[in-house]
Amino acid sequence: MSVVTELHIPGKRQKPDTSGIVILLTVVMLILAPLLLLSGGTGWTWPALVPDRPGGMLWSAALSPDNELFGAMFTSLLLAGVTSITGTVSGLLISRATAAFSNPVPRMLLLFPWIVSPVVAGISMYDQLARAGLAGQMSGVVLAQLAFAAPLSAVVFQDLWSNRTRAMTRLVRDLGGSTTAVWRHVVWPAVRRIIPVCLLQTALFSWLDYGLVSTIGGGRVETVTVRLFALLREGGMNQAAVAALILMTPPLLLAVPLAILRLQLPDHVAGVSREIS
Amino acid sequence: MTTAPDQSTIATPDQTALRAHSLSVSFANVRVLDNVSLELPHGETLVVMGPSGGGKSTLLRCLSGNQPNAAGEVRFPQWEGSTAGSRKSVPVLMMDQEPLLFEHLTVFENLAFPLRMRSEPGPKLNRQVDEMISHLELENVRRHLPAQLSGGQKQRCAFGRALLAAPAVLLMDEPFNALDNDVRTRLQSFFRKLATDYALSTVFVTHDLREALTVGTTFAMLDRGQLQTWPDAQSFAADPETGVDKEVQFWSEFHSPKRSY
Predict the structure, then answer these.
(1) pTM for the full model?
(2) What's the total number of domains in chain A?
């Protein structure tokens, strides 16, 4: 019979400190619990904990095709899809271009999404987009979101253009390879694990954006965030709770693959993606 | 009646693999290369030695066309005369201390890369790569990815790929430096054998005198931007400036029974 004894070192804590986790869970539940309660019925009388008329009627109404929130979900999904793809591709090209400069100024410009908020950018871009007939259009919102999504992606891709990548590019050229061969055998193997992270992050940025959609969209492009604010203004707290939970669902669902992808990424890229989000 | 052609009018093919003329490079007013000229006959290995910071790597970058602020001229007469314009070979290829392999390709595919780039037909490609794998003694790892190889295997794979690319001139910048002594000694002999078999024209930079004498057929010293050359190992070893005599003396004394510490 073997006896397993616990190693005891005086002065060392034997159990991990869980107080931080408790605080985190409390904060999460303080946000989630009221939303779940509010979306689970209509009417509420103080000091009751549950709605007066509990049920899934708000959810079935929100998910019916003729509901405005349902339409807003499709608009948000379309915007997130288009912005993430165009933002990731242009971010890759921008990062390649800026890496070619030894001067740090072009790379510093990539940090402007951290300096300018979407609302400020929306106000400054509105006039030009209105002149081009793009204000109040989905295409105008995509262009405005691209101004943020592309630099976000470019920062993540920045470290790819290392001395090794340059040496590999030169090698492919010296071995008689074309530009296509360089992209296929040098760039693609290096970026393929980072592309999903960029796609997810830019999609989340677009999905959660309110500032650009409200200023550039001018009320004619109605996303879930715009609908949520409209419901709050109208005082429909129960419907607003449903909209808020719908808004939170994709980030919650995407958080799992994003966390797995980050674990598989090189440290420097995972670090950048952590900073951005 | 036919008359024999006048021999003086027949152009003999130029057997010079590399001809560099008046290469000059300066960094912040320091002349790293000062009007350096050199010629490399076909099939020879020119070993370039010299102190650190003496401009050896700069010289290789100049010869490969990758030194931005260089002046002078580099020609590949034999390549220009025979295959210029075709895609059957490349003029120059550089091999660094760190073997640059395609991490997503197997050993076989890494070796096949230059052949695929020049659209070599499948059966010929397979035969050439199989032969090279056999020469390189990499049969056991032909389906392995570079991450699964040892340092010596990686360097052999990179060297084999360079041979299949058939460059007019191969530039090697201390290629065996990162390897341990046994592997290094083995690869030096291995290089010498394949360089002879494939009539390879190489400029080989090294710090190691023993490596220089093992792999080289002609020799050069680069110091403060000036290049001094020796046509063979005998003249190189006989010149007191090269330090070979001091090395020989050290080992003689080391092995002497009278040695005391």
Answers:
(1) 0.72
(2) 1
